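Here is a typical protein record:
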Amino acid sequence: MYDFLNNFHKRMEKLSYSFLIDNKISVTGQLKNYGFSTNEQINLVYVLMCFVLDKSLKDEECTLDNMSNYLDKIILNYFDKDIKEEEVREITRFIIYRVLRNEGKPFIFNTLNYSNDERVVYEYHLLQQKPSRDNKNKSTFYLTQEGYRLLLGSLEIDEKMQIDINQMILELSLKRKNFSQGLTAIENLNNLIRSQISVINNFIYRTRENIFSINQEEFQNNFLKNIEVLKEQNDRFEELKQVVILEEERLMSNNDKVIDENLESLRQLGRIKELLISISQKSGSLISKHFQFKDEYKNALEEASYYYSNKRINIKEDILKPIEEDAMALDNIYKIFNPLFIPKIKKKFNINKIFEEQKIYSSEDEEDEVEIDEIKEEQELINNLIRRKEEYQGIISCMLGFIIDKKNTDFRALADYYSNKNDEEFKKLVPTVRQLSEIVIEFLRLGEIDIEEMMNEYEESYINEEIELDLRQLLVNEINEKYRFRMPKKLKFYRSDEIDIVEVKERVHIDKNIESFEFTTIETVRCPNFIMHME
């Protein structure tokens, strides 16, 4: 109806980026508490986004600490506000998590496609986070494709047009021997190409994470077209590199003494050539990878289509209708319900499985190649974990058995009892004083343990096998193995009123073949005596 409204929804998508940020700031209003006006708040958010943009283009870490230090200097020098370091950190956290990350939820914007009278809903993130390479306990942040569009589009020029313009400026600068302007143009080009490469890599990451979040049209527009553009640009960069080399040869071919002006020109040409080579290598590497990714995308689509086209049981068609047609079919209905009554189903679950790649496996799948050293190292870690868990289980076995036999006792009695035992039995209670201390601290921290409630909770929960010390699991294992028919109702652990320090020493094995044993270190734990009571 109105030609000027063609592609209106795409125009609104770009406008929505800044609108949703501004709206988020005005709704929360938290930055007002620090004395920032509305304009200052908006400026502060985009100042921080530009910092993230710079780090993303350079592929550098961008942690909360980095951003907080940067924002601290900006606020002090340009906003003329004296805000404490801790408050600046809170401001940084607010901008990152509440505004730009939208508390982890996608930004949602509704508009209308006037060409076909359909509602269009846009969902996107402007900022993403991932574990830091240097410290896995910290996060680093980077711009998404929409984040790049917001900041780079804020110059009112499309990325492709910016690249074309800077290429033209570089070419003209080389022809006119204006190498200073050419150097500025190639530095701009370097940042733009980095941005384009980041957008493509981000698209690949999104596709691998969830192929259903990408449709075919988006794959054509955001990946294949970008790759084609990158190829064209790369060919042009190679031509420009040859122009630079010819200019260098022209300046160096002069037999006279090289004047200062020529030296500066050679330096600028050297930097231009260096950046052109860097850009060609990066884009060339990405172009060579895209063929592999195209195959990966195709295979993933085939696997997904197989997964969803694979026949599944239709309860109504496959079960109810046959029974309605022939009531004698009920004779076999027990086969459906039998699995529901399997007693004591194991509820152990390896949490790492949810992070593995999800795909359709077939007999033709080849096993991933793994280095022998990696297998040995991983197996050694697993064996050490199993050994430590067995040692913890031994401590629980000694303590629980002693408590059930004595009903009401204390830690001193337990220590004295095992001090008279041989080394093998003593080491079952005290494999190391550190492990004994951890168990004792856990018991005192819990104070009172309702055994029946603990057993019921255990039946309804999953177990993470990678946790080294899970007191509940150790107790349940011991009770199920030895005390199912004389299970205690409660276990209580509390400090004794009397001031009594119990000392427990490790037993060190001394090799009798050594003639003189001069010294050794014997670990000792000293702790207040405490009561151990069973009901």
Remarks:
- The longest helix spans residues 260-309.
- Residues 365-371 have pLDDT under 50 and may be disordered.
- The chain is about 60% helix and 10% strand.
